[in-house]
Automatic annotation (TrEMBL):
Belongs to the purine nucleoside phosphorylase YfiH/LACC1 family. Pfam families: Cu-oxidase_4. It catalyses: adenosine + H2O + H(+) = inosine + NH4(+); S-methyl-5'-thioadenosine + phosphate = 5-(methylsulfanyl)-alpha-D-ribose 1-phosphate + adenine; adenosine + phosphate = alpha-D-ribose 1-phosphate + adenine; inosine + phosphate = alpha-D-ribose 1-phosphate + hypoxanthine. Keywords: Metal-binding, Transferase, Zinc. This is Polyphenol oxidase family protein. GO terms for molecular function: copper ion binding; S-methyl-5-thioadenosine phosphorylase activity.
Length: 240
């Protein structure tokens, strides 16, 4: 089971996939970072070993595929209509709050990448139907980035959102019922602030917690007896 987006799929010379827990389509030479839920960004070439360099965002101008590992966090893949460039970002709430989106797009700009040529895809992740958070987290997000959504819908709500589609599992049990968080919407506001428009961004409505056992979920396995599962999402440029 894979998830693809039309936006990235339409880019010439760009391959991508949001993989499931089988990871059967993962490229053998895939580069990924040692993710730390931070804001570090790196550019890689053909030689770096995977899983060693500490960062949560990576980009390349080579044909080596790059990716991220997730199990509820946002897998964010980026390609360009014209530039020889692809990127992958691991977007948990901590990294988003720490500035991983801002740092990434600043690095892209410094590398000469045209932001108006970019297409961004956000893959399967935990959705507001299952992502319950506490007031302390909401307060921290509001202090850091609340100005981005003044007068608009906040990326959190005290009302639980229903699932966007028929679910394969039951939704996450409610605990303190203080707030339900929308990671993808939070990321969308950050991408807008970085200079993108809505037409450049696509987001999946697949919840890794309740949509299917094919998607790995850290939070689900804390609520149930499950083996540790996760998925690789990747993007790459085809050899000419």
């Amino acid at each position: 089971m894979f998830y693809f987006t039309d936006g990235l799929g339409a880019l010439p010379g760009v391959m991508h996939a949001f993989g499931d827990v089988s990871n059967s389509g993962k490229p053998t030479n895939l580069f990924y970072c040692a993710q730390k839920h931070g804001a570090q960004v790196v550019e890689v070439g053909d030689k770096e070993a995977p899983g060693i360099i500490a960062a949560d965002a990576v980009f390349t101008r080579t044909t080596r595929p790059i990716g991220v590992v997730t199990a509820d966090c946002l897998p964010i893949l980026i390609g360009s209509e014209k530039d020889q460039f692809v990127a992958a970002i691991h977007g948990g709430w901590q990294g988003l709050a720490a500035g991983v989106i801002e740092n990434s797009f600043l690095a892209f700009h410094r590398a000469g990448v045209r932001l108006d040529h970019l297409r961004v895809a956000i893959g399967p992740s935990i959705q507001p139907c299952c992502y319950e958070v506490g007031k302390q987290l909401v307060d921290e997000i509001e202090r850091t980035h609340g100005h981005l959504w003044r007068g608009r819908q906040a990326p959190w709500s005290t009302l639980r959102r229903p699932s966007e589609r028929d679910v394969g599992f039951s939704r996450a049990p409610a605990s303190h019922n203080q707030a339900w968080f929308d990671l993808a919407l939070y990321c969308h506001y950050l991408l807008e602030a970085a200079g993108l428009n809505c037409e450049q961004i696509q987001a999946a409505d697949i919840c890794t917690y309740c949509a299917s056992h094919h998607w790995g979920s850290y939070r689900r396995r804390t609520h149930r007896v499950e083996e540790k599962t996760f998925q690789y999402s990747w993007i790459g440029l085809q050899d000419c």
